[in-house]
Structure formats: structure tokens, C-alpha cells
Design goal:
The protein is mainly beta and about 170 residues long. It folds into 2 domains: about 35 residues, no CATH class; about 120 residues, Jelly Rolls (Sandwich), CATH 2.60.120. The protein has a 6-stranded antiparallel β-sheet with strand order 3-12-5-8-9-10, with no helix packed on it. Strands 4-11-6-7 form a 4-stranded antiparallel β-sheet, with no helix packed on it. The chain has a two-stranded antiparallel ribbon with strand order 1-2. The two termini are about 35 Å apart.
Length: about 170
């Protein structure tokens, strides 16, 4: 019986006897290979600030092991609130490096870390209303805080999820 080169899966010829054990062994190899491909995302941490609306949110980014990930994704969820319409959010890094001012609402920040602290920060801000590049002049090793504040009102009840993608 022939085997595939990469995973050594069975390749039956018409005259080969097909055994359940061979078929089950192939399925185990396939499952192991897929597990390595599909289990690439991990919840790094989540924040559900207690209490009422806030003036701003600050995230300590030093707890993220940037070099372990190809991408890091922040997903921000906000409680439905009519008062958000027309308002904008200001996003800054390290307290003073502006990333931009964006339409307020649920959003994603996607960082391309490339498993390196020496890479310059690169990413995208994604929301239903906007897609903008993130190109600050610093490396992931220099990144320590992300600040989010609403320009002209309080931030409604929110929750944040940070994911790492290998």
C-alpha cells in the first residue's frame, strides 16, 4: 500500500485490502494536523469595566506577549445607545501618539505583530463606518498603553476582548 509523503496517509490500490485500523489511523493523523491549523486563536484577556459610563478607557498593553502572535485583535463591544450616533472616538497609543478619530461604535483594532517586538506597529482600525491604517512610529516593544476616549461625551457601558492569532 502506498502512503502520502507529508502525512503518510494510506493510498489504496484497487487490489489492496482496506482495513478499519488503517482508516482510523488516517483519521487520527488528519485530526492532529487540523488541530494545529484551526486552534490558532486564543483569548488573551477580556475587560468588562464595572459601573456606569466612563470618560475614557486605558489598556495596559505590556501584558500582551506580542512576540507570541502573528496578529493581535482587540474587539470592542458597546451597549446599544442612541446617543453614540454622530459622536467620534479618539484613539491614542502610549498616552500621546494619535492613531486617529473614528466614528463611535463597536470596532476592531487588528495589529500585525509578526511574532516580533522589533517590528514597527502596523494594523487596521475596522468599524462598520470606517477602515483606517494604523502606522505609528514605534515598535511593539515600545508599546505600553492604548487609550480610548469619546471627544464630547461619556463612553457607554462596554466590554473589550483581546485575541492572539498564531
Amino acid at each position: 500500500m502506498k502512503k502520502t509523503e507529508q502525512y503518510e496517509l494510506n493510498q489504496w490500490d484497487p487490489t489492496d485490502r482496506i482495513l478499519r485500523e488503517d482508516f482510523n489511523a488516517d483519521n487520527l493523523k488528519i485530526a492532529a494536523a487540523l488541530a494545529g491549523k484551526l486552534d490558532r486563536t486564543e483569548l488573551l484577556f477580556s475587560l468588562d469595566p464595572p459601573g456606569d459610563d466612563l470618560d475614557s478607557s486605558t489598556f495596559n498593553l505590556t501584558i500582551i506577549p506580542w512576540a507570541n502572535w502573528e496578529f493581535v485583535l482587540l474587539h470592542a463591544f458597546f451597549k446599544e445607545n442612541e446617543s453614540l450616533k454622530g459622536h467620534r472616538a479618539r484613539v491614542t497609543l502610549n498616552y500621546n501618539i494619535p492613531l486617529g478619530v473614528f466614528p463611535w461604535g463597536d470596532f476592531f483594532l487588528l495589529f500585525w505583530t509578526r511574532h516580533s517586538l522589533k517590528e514597527r506597529v502596523r494594523g487596521l482600525f475596522l468599524s462598520p463606518q470606517s477602515i483606517s491604517p494604523l502606522l505609528p512610529e514605534l515598535t511593539y516593544g515600545e508599546l505600553h498603553h492604548l487609550d480610548l476616549d469619546k471627544e464630547d461625551a461619556r463612553i457607554p457601558t462596554q466590554r473589550y476582548r483581546f485575541y492572539g492569532i498564531r
